[in-house]
Amino acid sequence: MNNALLESFKDNFKDLQQADWSQLGQFYADDIVFKDPVHELRGLVILEDYFTELCADLIDCRFEYLDQVVSDNSAYLKWIMHFRHPRLGNDVIDVRGVSHLRWSDKIDFHEDFYDMGAMLYERLPVLGNVTRWLRLRLAS
What is the pTM of this model? Predict the structure, then answer.
């Protein structure tokens, strides 16, 4: 993957509300494997459907890229995702994470690592209190 393609990939995901999910084939191989803390998806069409559905209810979702490490056939991108979702209140939620990409001709593996507690668990009424309490106990 050349640097121009990586920059184009980042531009596509910079603002998910503006992304054109039908254009994922310019970055991803047909047999893409996508993983995150909740899902493992296989195939470009399934990934397009996932992103389309994921963004349907979002009010806002932007990625701020902080750093990257790139080798011949892989990259790690450090980012902060800023998003708002109607089920999680009106506040902007900031979640730090890292994406690991591997490619030959196009990206054939994409794994996202992020804190589900910061993203979701801490925002739920009962589970949020338990998650925050556990964090404090582990930190002391």
Answer: 0.81
